[in-house]
Write a structure and sequence with these properties.
Layout lengths: L2 E5 L15 E5 L19 H4 L17 E3 L10 E3 L1 H9 L3 H17 L5 H8 L6 H13 L4 H19 L9 H24 L4 H11 L5 H14 L5 H8 L9 H9 L15 H12 L3 H14 L3 H13 L3 H14 L4 H13 L3 H12 L6 H23 L3 H14 L4 H11 L5 H14 L4 H13 L3 H14 L4 H13 L3 H13 L3 H10 L2
Antiparallel strand pairs: 1-2, 3-4
Helix pairs in contact: 3-4, 5-6, 6-7, 6-8, 7-8, 8-9, 8-10, 12-13, 13-14, 14-15, 14-16, 15-16, 16-17, 16-18, 17-18, 17-19, 18-19, 18-20, 19-20, 21-22, 22-23, 22-24, 23-24, 24-25, 25-26
Amino acid sequence: MAVLLLLLLGASSFGLVGCKKKVPVTFATDGQASPWSRRAEAPSLTPAERTQPVAIVAPAPLPEGLPLKVHVSPSGKGPKEYVDQPGIRSLLYFKKYALLEAAFETFQHRFETDVFDEELIYQAAGSFDSSENELQQQLDAWVAASPSSFAPYLARANHFENAGWDSRGGASARETSGEAFARMKELHEKALADANKALELRPKLQAALRVRVKIAKGTSRATDGKAALDRAVKDCPTCFRVRFAYAFGLAPRWGGSYEAMDAFAKSAPVDKNPRLAILAGLADDDRATSLLVAKNYDGALAALDAATKHYDAATFAGARADVLHRKKDLAGALVAIDHALDLAPWDADLHANRAAILASSKRWKEAGEELLIAVRVDRTNDTAREYHAYIVEWLIWRAHEETVAKRRDAALDLLDVALALAPSNQYAAGAQSAAVLLDVDPKTDIPRLEADVKAKPDDFRTHQRLDYALAALNRFKEVIQMWDGYIARHPKDGRAHLERGGAHNRLGERDAAHADVKAACDLGISQGCIFAARASK
């Protein structure tokens, strides 16, 4: 027998403006053990589709002070600190340009002072590796506001470089359209222009040279890549990042050879910077990739063992996690990905891969939370695109099961994650309404719910239940009054602003509604971002 969940058009359903009727949401329970769709397998996308965001998610909280996070490494091999990349993206979102530039200046100064601090400026620039068009618009505004700072040019160069590769896609050259190649070339020309401008403003900016090296691989620009490498090595003989990018471009897939990769690795001054030992493992890492594509998983693991003997690197541990995941060794894959994230805790790709492993392990809430970390930095991440709908649908399904079992809070916790990842999903909104009003009869239970609110004046869930009950009876003014009191005590609770915005909307108070949902978005609620964008059109 099917279980019917009614999507109540109260304060919680701001997104369905103009709807007059209740929308039924049905989950089949006739023995079906999974949601209504399966994970997408390597979708074939056009260049434009590959640069569309996987999800529209709210900005992360603004960092307090320098956007750095402390890392306590379980293995002792990971960094003591790393760049808060979601925080960096939030600084751009809120147009805190002076703070952004101060952060980039600090990270670059630390690198120029101590070569072993080179990673931070790359992590800061990598915050903008995502390819969505909205990010370009934000970066354009930053460049216009700060034309004399190297920081916005470096950030936009990273964006254009990655957007170029995403537009091309990962297929072989003969399977790639002329349109894709043309779009990649167009974007890479823009990246080079920005990288050169950044170098003009900050001549020791190795992160800009790295952009030039990465664009040169596998193209007629090979001499440009070598020139950028030579300049980088002259300025900093023991630096790692530009050498790594160049070595990666020597792989056979880019027209090079393993012999060239090994010879280049031997030329690196490992005695002066031990991290350069990673270069000696890159040929085996590339062999592992080829073996993985051929589904020779044991061979791929052996190649990664050989690579790791040179240096215990996050890139090798992440590749190991991918192989073990495909072998369905989920416990081993989780150990490997956790180790990779210990070594590179900022890495959005690793967070997306961890989400995939957790999803395969049916740990849906953790998978959704991990995916949210990834898409807050890289909204066009390939793994996120593959797993996003799958994880969201399983979150909704599990929430439905928790609701049927009368575990309201467990259901709502799952739906919070689902709606953070898919804020316009009507099934999630309907499931949320059903869970909030579990065992509540609006016609008789409002006095009891009002007493609960009075007894727990700081509990959001208690207020939300009274809100939905009042909304079911169209008592929206009372909803607003209730949230006014709560928000006065908790002005930074974005969920409350979202709910009050829904009530304002139902009363036709558009300006007040827009102000509330914009506040909700700014406070980290993805639904608020969707509704604010709709209201502003």
